[in-house]
Write a structure and sequence with these properties.
The protein has 118 residues and is α+β, with helices and mostly antiparallel strands. The chain contains 3 helices and 5 strands, in the order H-H-E-E-E-E-E-H. The protein has a 5-stranded antiparallel sheet, with no helix packed on it. A hairpin with a 5-residue loop joins strand 1 and strand 2. The protein is elongated.
Length: 118
């Protein structure tokens, strides 16, 4: 019978081998998102709660920013919706209040890039 030393059990590594990273955390600057929109193409409304709503002039795109959480969804900070057509369903994406604004901005920018003027 052989006995394994306790000092060799488990796993050993170094911080370098783990490739530790610093991750973007915290809500960041909402202006990173809101600055993506122009008054020429979008309507802006700030309501009595301080929530910011942006909608395309055709009404098919909507983005809401809820700094204190969306009513009935207190952890939701951002709501993006694109309405569908008679042939293709639309979609919606939500981000919680602590999602970094630059992450939300990247998603919103991609949605805006894929739109086409008719």
């Amino acid at each position: 019978m052989s006995v394994t030393s306790v000092s060799t059990l488990g796993f050993a590594t170094t911080i370098k081998a783990l490739r530790l990273r610093e991750w973007s955390l915290g809500p960041g600057r909402p202006s990173d998102v809101t600055n993506l929109f122009s008054a020429d193409d979008f309507h802006f409304v700030v309501d009595d709660r301080g929530d910011v709503h942006m909608a395309s002039k055709d009404g098919r795109f909507y983005l809401g920013w809820y700094p204190n959480g969306r009513p009935d969804f207190p952890d939701e900070g951002w709501k993006l919706t694109v309405s569908g057509t008679a042939e293709v369903r639309g979609y919606e994406v939500s981000f919680d209040r602590e999602t970094p604004a630059d992450i939300v901005a990247a998603a919103v920018a991609r949605v805006l890039e894929t739109s086409q003027a008719l």
